[in-house]
Structure formats: structure tokens, C-alpha cells
Design a protein that fits this description.
single chain; 2 domains; 3-stranded antiparallel β-sheet; two-stranded antiparallel sheet; 54% helix; 5% strand; elongated
Length: 317
């Protein structure tokens, strides 16, 4: 009866797919779970628990959908690694997992993991003692280097599909973050002004009106004409798939360009075209820092459009 209730709850909540395929009741009233790959258990309704943690991130902490999903993914991997119940976790368990991560992942990935663990244990479970002794690593700042215009064109021509070509151009022409572009729907585009409408503003990231040039409009329209689905999303792909596709191209041609690199290129290029920094920040969704930028600058769509068009940004020509 208890197993059926969990299955019904899983269907009602439409929880994300996971490898857990066999569920049995345990003596404690919880559940024993296994995966196809390895014996991963025991968990107590772990997917429902993680779904509630995701809602906490979204509602209580006002985090974005992407950040909330990342936190859930990190914590799911944490439990799979330890193979323990929630109430059995100790400081040494957390230390052992962080030690494993530190020796196998980049320092930034380690910092992101620690952020997820603190968000989960400190903020959600109120078990501060499990993570309070762990400090964030010092990450050396490496100034970004923007790719050349020729490198951008070479990379673009090597992309395999119209979808990724359109995505590449929209990222380069707008200065938007990857997750912001992937969250766009077709109705978020004002074709007459070649403008991306702002959405999903939160306390961490902001978006203003962004724009794209004529060459991007041409390719984007061609891509949408190839679509046969009724999906309202502008791009029917995800962050991981984009990263994998960009990496394949980078390995093939020897030029490394990422969505973040395109954002750097946009900011540098607009600076070269004499666009003031405060407007570049607005296009990129960065919060104005100076008094002039914050209180005495006009960020109306019409003015931003004039500034963007005057720059005459080109990517393919």
C-alpha cells in the first residue's frame, strides 16, 4: 500500500526521471531504493524529498529554475556517493565527499558543490554543524580573453545544425546568458524591433531589454521555419546538450568557444564600437554600479534600441 502511494505521488507531482526502479518498504517505514547501475540505497522517499528541496530553492530563496535544478543534482549525487540515509550523515561523510570532489573536479566545480551543500544542510535542513567548518576555496581570477572575429566565424561555420547556428548568433548578438536564452519562448521576441523582452528577474540576476542584429534575425527565422513541433520554447535543447555540442566543435577545429565566451566577446566588441559601459551592462543584464548608471541613465527600450543599432554590431561579416 505504501509503495503504491509513493508511485501515485510520483505521478501526480511529475517528478524528474531517475534511475530508481525498485522500491521496497523497510522496517523503519522508509524505502529501500536501487538503481540499474549500482545498488544505491537506502533512501527515504528521496526523490520526493529532493523535489521539496527544489521548491524551497525556488520559492523560499527565490533562486532561478536552473540554479535550483543544479542544487538538486548536486545533492542527489551526494546521497548516491555516500549510500546513507539523511539522518545518518556526519561531518566526516561530508568531508569525505568533498575530498573526493576536490581530487576529481576543477576548483570552481568544488566551490559550486560546497554552495549546494550549504544551501541544503544549513538553509533547508537547518543542520549548520554539518557544513559550517568548510570554507570556500580561493579562486584565482584569470582575465577573460575574447576570441577574434575570424575565430567566431570559423566556429559558427563548423556548427552542425541550424538550431545551434541560430543559438550561437543570438548569444553573440545579445550578450545574454545561456540559461536566459534557453528559457525564452517565441512570444518573448519582438520581431519588429529585433528585441528580446526581459523576464525571470530575480535577486541574483537581472535582465533588461536585449537586441539582436539583422544577420541573427535571418538565421533565427530560418531555424524556426524548420521546426515541425508545437513547442513554445525558442530553442528545444538544454544547457548540457549545448555544452556537449560546443565541445565537439572545439575538439574538431581547435578553437574553444563557449556561451560564456560569446558573452565576453559581445561586451568587448560593443566597447570597441564606443557603446558606454553602463549600456553594455544593461544589455548583458548586469546591475548598474555607479550613481550615474543607477539613477541618471535612461534605460527605455527605445533608447536602448537606438544605441544598439548605432553600434552596428556584425558577427558574420
Amino acid at each position: 500500500m505504501r509503495v503504491q502511494q509513493l508511485i501515485n505521488t510520483h505521478r501526480i507531482l511529475k517528478l524528474p526521471k531517475n534511475p530508481l526502479i525498485l522500491i521496497n518498504a523497510t522496517q523503519s517505514g522508509g524505502f529501500q531504493a536501487w538503481s540499474k547501475e549500482r545498488g544505491l540505497g537506502p533512501y527515504n522517499d528521496i526523490e520526493i524529498h529532493l523535489e521539496n528541496f527544489k521548491r524551497f530553492c525556488l520559492i523560499d530563496k527565490q533562486l532561478t529554475h536552473g540554479v535550483s535544478k543544479t542544487h538538486v543534482r548536486m545533492i542527489r549525487h551526494f546521497y548516491k556517493f555516500l549510500n546513507k540515509k539523511i539522518n545518518q550523515i556526519t561531518i566526516e561523510d561530508v568531508r569525505r565527499y568533498l575530498e573526493f570532489y576536490r581530487t576529481t573536479k576543477a576548483i570552481k566545480s568544488y566551490a559550486n558543490l560546497l554552495c549546494s551543500l550549504k544551501r541544503y544542510f544549513r538553509d533547508y535542513l537547518h543542520k549548520d554543524y554539518l557544513v559550517e567548518s568548510f570554507e570556500f576555496p580561493n579562486i584565482e581570477y584569470i582575465p577573460p580573453i575574447a576570441p577574434s572575429d575570424n575565430d567566431l566565424r570559423t566556429f559558427y561555420n563548423a556548427l552542425p545544425t541550424m538550431r545551434y547556428k541560430a543559438l550561437f548568433l543570438l548569444l553573440a548578438a545579445s550578450g545574454r546568458r545561456l540559461h536566459e536564452v534557453l528559457e525564452l519562448t517565441k512570444s518573448d521576441i519582438n520581431w519588429e524591433m529585433r528585441m528580446i523582452l526581459p523576464k525571470n528577474t530575480n535577486k541574483i540576476k537581472r535582465t533588461w531589454y536585449s537586441f539582436f542584429n539583422e544577420e541573427t534575425e535571418t538565421i533565427l527565422r530560418e531555424y524556426l521555419q524548420t521546426r515541425k513541433d508545437n513547442d513554445t520554447r525558442l530553442f528545444t535543447t538544454g544547457t548540457n546538450h549545448v555544452g556537449q555540442e560546443f565541445k565537439k566543435v572545439a575538439d574538431m577545429i581547435g578553437i574553444r568557444i563557449t556561451p560564456q565566451t560569446l558573452r565576453v566577446w559581445f561586451a568587448c566588441k560593443m566597447g570597441d564600437l564606443n557603446v558606454p559601459d553602463r549600456y553594455i551592462d544593461a544589455f548583458c543584464g548586469r546591475t548598474p554600479k555607479s550613481v550615474l548608471a543607477r539613477h541618471y541613465t535612461d534605460y527605455s527600450p527605445e533608447r536602448l534600441k537606438r544605441i544598439y543599432d548605432k553600434a552596428n554590431l556584425k558577427i558574420l561579416s
